[in-house]
Amino acid sequence: MKKSRLTDIPVTDHDNFSFAECLVFLSRSEKECLHYVQGNVVHKMMVSNGHPVLLEISDDPAAKALKARVLDGGDAEIDEAHIRRYISHWLHLETDLRPFYKFAKKDVVLKPLADRYKGLRLIGIPDLFEALTWSITGQQINLGFAYTLRQRFIHAFGHHAVIAGKDYYVYPHPAVVASLEPASLMAMQFSRSKADYIIGLAKAMTDGLLTDKQLWEMDYQQARTHLISFRGIGNWSANYVLMKYHRHHQALPLEDAGLHNALKQQMQLTTKPSLTDVKEYTQHWGEYAAYATFYLWRSLMQ
What confidence score (pLDDT) does residue 76 get? Predict the structure, then answer.
């Protein structure tokens, strides 16, 4: 076992950061298998320099930072800069929440949520392939079953290690999934169309037709258009990926059932709002759309 020293990950706008609120969101499903919340720390396996490393992430309020300790890294050379970037991106540690909170104060729906969940960052998905395939997995099914499918997919095709008697996983690599037949996913209860879409995206990424570098070089509209050109990616999925992975603040998954239910609840409506109603309620969000959506999703976790 090879360990690094503690790595500090600075938190921008630390006065508006709550690791505790982030842990609540990270604990939302008992079927989560890519990270584990244990007390006040998170354990997560990631890949550094081509090798899986197990991290323990904790809060250090005095340093206005999080700390990452490598619990297990084999004989790999640990790239601390990569670990810092990975965690910062995943937990959105570089954002300044003050503009969003200033905006939320003037919004009757968002103000109580911003007060109630102060310090919650927009927890993202740190891998593009994971973000894309999760957006497809969750289409037209409830969240609980979506997590069941995700767990089966990760267990079957992801990197697996047992450390101190506990199972840890890294999300499946596109090259692994690209070689599969749809029947492999259909046996897990993925629909035929979802199996085709996921394998197709894996092949597109493996062939260089859809890359992280491409998307980072595009603005929001260009990236959205590019994503929608692939089978299985519609407006909702594209905005979800751009919100949760690429961090476009104006990304708004208008068709999201959770967003509709949260608006119904917060606005005390008698029926779930129509898509036209949702467009009207959200049209002024602009660059705050992603955070507004995320805080509304959080309100559903009671």
Answer: 61
The dihedral of CA 140, 142, 145, 146: what is its sign?
positive
- Rounded CA-CA distance 296/151 in Å is 25
Q: Under CATH, to which class is 5-94 assigned? A: alpha beta
CATH class of 128-245: mainly alpha
Q: Which residues contact 96 (CB under 8 A, 6 or more apart)?
A: 12, 13, 16
For residue 50, what pLDDT is reported? 86
Residues of the chain with CATH 3.30.310.20: 5-94
Measured over the CA atoms of residue 63, residue 66, residue 71 and residue 75, the dihedral's sign is negative
Residues with a catalytic annotation lie at 256
Listed residue (91, 66, 105, 71) closest to 1, CA to CA: 71
- Calpha distance 115→161 (Å, rounded): 40
Burial class (CB in 10 A: 0-12, 13-18, 19+), 187: exposed
Mean pLDDT by 10 residues, the chain (302 residues): 71 97 96 96 93 95 95 76 95 97 97 98 96 95 95 98 96 98 98 98 97 94 97 96 95 95 96 95 96 97 80
Amino acid at site 254: L
Helix axes 128-137, 235-244, angle to 10 degrees: 140
Residues carrying CATH 1.10.340.30, the chain: 128-245
CB 174 within 8 A of CB 205: yes
